[in-house]
Amino acid sequence: MKQEMMTIVRQQELAPRIYELVLTGELVNEMTMPGQFLHIRVPRSDLLLRRPISINQYDRAEETCTIIYRVEGDGTSYFAEMSAGEQLDVMGPLGHGFEIDQLNAGDTAFIVGGGIGVPPLYQLSKELKVKGVKVVHFLGFGTQEVVYYADEFQALGETRFSTDDGTFGIQGNVGNLLLAEKRQPNAVFACGNNGLLKTVEQLYSTVDNVQLSLESRMACGMGACYACVCHVPEDENKSVKVCEDGPVFQAGEVIF
Ligand code: FAD
Ligand code: FES
Asked: Which residues are [2Fe-2S] cluster-binding (predicted)?
C-alpha cells in the first residue's frame, strides 16, 4: 500500500451521475490483484474521511488506473467537479481482491454485478480472459439510461443484461438472469448489493469457488478502526474487517 498525489488524466460522465476517472501515478505499479480499492481524500477540509472506490482497471505500462463512481453525497459530488491536471491524495491499493490462481484455461467463470458493483469486475474479467478462462457476465442496472461498459464487457465474452424496468436486457434483476442459466461454472465472482450477493450464495452453494465482494461503511480503510467489522458464521467472538481481510470473501466466510 502506498499513498500518493495522483494526477487526473481525464474524466467523463458515462451516464447520469456516473463518472469514469483516469488517474496516473507510481501507485499503479502496486496494482496486481483485481477487486482491490483506492481510499481517496476529498480535497475539502471539512470532509475528513477518505472515500473507498474500487479499481475498475489498471495499465501498469501506461501508469494509469481507472475508477467508476456514482455521485451520492458531498465527496463524490466534489470528485465530479474535478478535471484533467488536478490531483487527488490516494491511498492504495487496499484490501484483498479476487483470487484467480485456481482457474485454468478452458474453465468457465460467471461474473455477476449490479449497479455500482460492476466496476471492479472489468479488470477481473480482462485478467481471466488472458488466462483463457471463458467469462460469462450477468449485469443488472436500474434502467437503460444508467447502463455503462456494455460494449467493454461484451468485447470480453458473453454478456447478459437485466434492468428493473426492462428497457435494456430482460426485465427484472440479476437473480432472474441467473435462474434462467442452466450451465454450472467452475467459479462465480460477484459484486453488488447484499441482496444480489445472497442470491449468488444460495444459487451456487454447490460450486466450490464463489467469491463475493462486500460493501461496507469504512473510516480508516486499513484495519485500524474496526468501522467495517463483519462476523463469521458459528463463532460470535470472531470477526473480520472488510477493508483489510476483504472486500472479497469466499461465500459462507462472513455474515452480511
Ligand atoms: P456521503 O453519503 O456524503 O458519504 C458520507 C460517508 O459515508 C463517507 O465517509 C462515505 O465514505 C461513507 N459512505 C457513503 N456511502 C457508502 C457506501 N455505499 N459504502 C461505503 N461507505 C459509504 N462507489 C462507487 O460509486 N464506485 C465504486 O467502485 C465503489 N467501490 C467501493 C468499494 C468499497 C470497498 C466500498 C466500501 C465502497 C465502494 N463504493 C463505490 C461506495 C462509495 O465508497 C460511496 O458511494 C462513497 O464513499 C460515498 O461518498 P459521498 O461523500 O459521496 O457520500
Ligand atoms: Fe477501519 Fe476497516 S475501515 S478497520
From this structure: 220, 225, 228, 243
